Amino acid sequence: MSRNFATEIKSPKLKDPSLFRKSAFINNEWINAKSGETYSVIDPATENEIGKVPEMNVEDTKEAIKMAKNAFKDWANLTAKNRHDYLLKLQSQILENQNDLATIITLENGKPYSEALGEIKYSASFVEWFAQEARRVYGDVILSSLKNHKIVVEKQPVGIVGVITPWNFPSAMVLRKISAALAAGCTVVIKPAPETPYSALAIAELAVRSGFPKGVINVITTEKNIKEVGLELCTNSDVKKISFTGSTAVGKLLMEQSSSTVKNISLELGGNAPFIVFDDADIDSAIEGVIACKFRGSGQTCICANRIYVQSSIYAEFASRLADKVSGFQVGNGFDTKTTHGPLINQKAVKKVTRHVEDAVAKGAEILVGGTNRTGNFFYPTVLTNMSKEMVITSEETFGPVAALYNFETEDEVINLANDSPHGLAGYFYSRDIGRCWRVADALEVGMVGVNTAMISNCEGPFGGIKESGIGREGSKYGINDFINLKYISMGGL
């Protein structure tokens, strides 16, 4: 594995510097916190300050909610075609500025520029998708059992949506949520992760250029006031829905807080994805799948493979070949064209990954490649063998570049192992037996299954989990339903 840590690569200048906004966004105005406070945003690759943004508090949040409320009626009363047109203008702006938007992601998140560019294109696909879905929010007419009655079901927007997003996909998680909300006729108050506010603010700038009315989209930034701001979004009676992506622990807290006003809530929470390789699999394809699934974003995605189960007859070969591939990775600054994997987001993340590796080794695991942190927020992509269920990785989501390989013998055994988790977001397996493919896909207790593929996230498919991995779905024809209320009208006397 390359030991070159070129962390001080100079970041490219933005073609349009006005996309790099350092103020919060309320009612189509760029504003500072009422307190005047700010906080620093750090580049995880260099650990240098990128800039400062407002440290907003509950008072600022209430103002954003008020503006979203003022805008809601007019936005909801637009035709679906009108909202469709606004979203398509936004999609066009995103694609026109994709290089600058990708640069912002790499600056604040650290992922390689090529991955960041892929995220922007992925983000734009949701804007286009939900622009089209805005025009397909169909109601129903139901035959009544009563004479001279007609039953009509209308679909109406939920209302103001509090959108709370993570740092690992700072553009995609914002746009996947707000595109559906806006298409349905909702207005939004976005609280991006404190580590990555600039992507959300750039989206707000592009919304202004796309002509979005005042108050429809609002962005509040905070670091030290996260708990207070989150509580306000969850308990404010004017906010009718919370859409959150993040850890299961925080999701449970938001769910509890939202119960005070019986809010509609969507949660996309933590995972502990099993990745199964049967002995009849195409090994080359399965190795590529593990690399794509485990190491994208340096392992910092909720659908990353966390437990990799390999059938005993191919275990040694698979482990050796995977380690050879991983040893060729280049870790470094995301703006270095040679970099394949960037840093972790911060030292807290490095410490967690280190703890998982050290625990596994102490309990008998073998490091085939990687396994150490050498500088700053970088951790070498790692392959571990001889894993067992007693190790912390088995039950905790690592959220880092560690491929942990477990041995199994039979199909029934591995299904039991895979399902032995309170989480149920994603699962993957490789096999060329068509009967097994259907059996295992049906048996895995997850919301999403990749069969002979690690690529499961797209605008057409319903993204989400079961068990403690969340509530609701994002993307697909189902995604807009989470932002809609059903109204049943019984018309008599006809």
UniProtKB/TrEMBL annotation:
InterPro entries: Ald_DH/histidinol_DH (IPR016161), Ald_DH_C (IPR016163), Ald_DH_CS_GLU (IPR029510), Ald_DH_N (IPR016162), Aldehyde_DH_dom (IPR015590), Aldehyde_DH_Superfamily (IPR050740), Succ_semiAld_DH (IPR010102)
GO MF entry, a single one: succinate-semialdehyde dehydrogenase (NADP+) activity
EC number: 1.2.1.16
Superkingdom of source: Eukaryota
Domain Aldehyde dehydrogenase as annotated: residue spans: 30-489
Any one GO cellular component localisation term in the record: cytoplasm
Reaction it catalyzes: succinate semialdehyde + NAD(+) + H2O = succinate + NADH + 2 H(+); succinate semialdehyde + NADP(+) + H2O = succinate + NADPH + 2 H(+)
GO process terms (BP): gamma-aminobutyric acid catabolic process
Keyword Cell membrane: no
Keywords, alphabetical: Oxidoreductase
Active site per UniProt: 268
PROSITE patterns given in the database record: ALDEHYDE_DEHYDR_GLU
Pathway(s): Amino-acid degradation; 4-aminobutanoate degradation
Enzyme class: oxidoreductase
PANTHER family with a match to the protein in the record: SUCCINATE-SEMIALDEHYDE DEHYDROGENASE, MITOCHONDRIAL
Cited NCBIfam families: SSADH
Sequence similarity: Belongs to the aldehyde dehydrogenase family.
Protein name per its UniProtKB record: Succinate-semialdehyde dehydrogenase
Species in which this protein is naturally found: Glomus cerebriforme
